[in-house]
Amino acid sequence: MQDQLKDFIHFLVVEKGLATNTVVSYERDLKSYLLYLNKVEEVSSLDEVTRATIIQFLKFLTEKGKSSKTIARHIASIRSFHQFLLREKVTTQDPTVHIDRPKQEQKLPQVMSVEEVQALLEGPDVSKVFGIRDKAMLELLYATGMRVSELISLNLSDVHMTMGFVRCIGKGNKERIIPLGKMAQNAIASYIEESRSQLTKKKTTDALFVNLHGNRLTRQGFWKILKKLTKEAGIEKELTPHTLRHSFATHLLENGADLRAVQEMLGHADISTTQIYTHVTKTRMKDVYSMFHPRA
């Protein structure tokens, strides 16, 4: 069974071109599934697995206190695995056919107000080398809705100032082109002209954003910067790099942007993922109504 798992992982990487984090998640889920089949159910061949076997595994996860989100992810991994085995004629049936994913409570993403975004973006001290860099990163994140992994992966050649866009490689190595606003363009130009060479010193690097040692900035490095700037801006919310992405999408939709355009800029494969932001805007609309309407 381990060999079949290796073949499936190879398929995800080579043929599907999935991102490393996604592949790691599939592998982790399926290793726990195969361990259960081997140790608890004493299954010697994947052709022996039935719907009842999988339901017992899901019950096992529930008893261990796993969330509905984690269980839903396991079901997706197991279903993809069994469909692969059936296509490759390793097995003769797919035991996942009539297994439904558990209903999940839809958790709305945390979004910043426009005033909070303004306070955060104006926080960095642009009289200093690091402040110029931090300002450019924040402006770029809010202007494009990029993931932090995409931000730190940017190279100098990915930013096209004259054309006003940035080239971004997202999940599954998919490329997308995102327009840049004037504020972001100005902040990036200031960083490249005034700050970057002081940080890289004599090092040669393609990385757009670098740290104190002139190396590509890491996720952890950006997290520390964001935490510090959030505190200095007096924002009480627990911000993550994804909060700026959520705010970017929500603010665009609140101002009348087309859902499909927002989907493309965010790099979502499925529009249903983008639609969660329409729920956020409706919730915020209710809050505004309750706060300001005289007869609310």
Word description of this protein:
With 296 residues, this protein is mostly helical. It has helices at residues 2-15, 20-39, 51-63, 68-87, 114-121, 129-144, 148-153, 182-200, 219-232, 241-254, 259-266, 271-274, 276-292, and strands at residues 159-160, 165-169, 175-179. It has two domains: 2-87, DNA polymerase, domain 1 (Orthogonal Bundle); 114-292, Intergrase catalytic core (hpI Integrase, Chain A). It contains 13 helices and three strands, in the order αααααααβββαααααα. α1 (2-15) packs antiparallel against α2, α2 packs across α4 (68-87) and α6 (129-144) runs antiparallel to α8. It is elongated, with a radius of gyration of 23 Å. The model has no long low-confidence stretch (mean pLDDT 85).
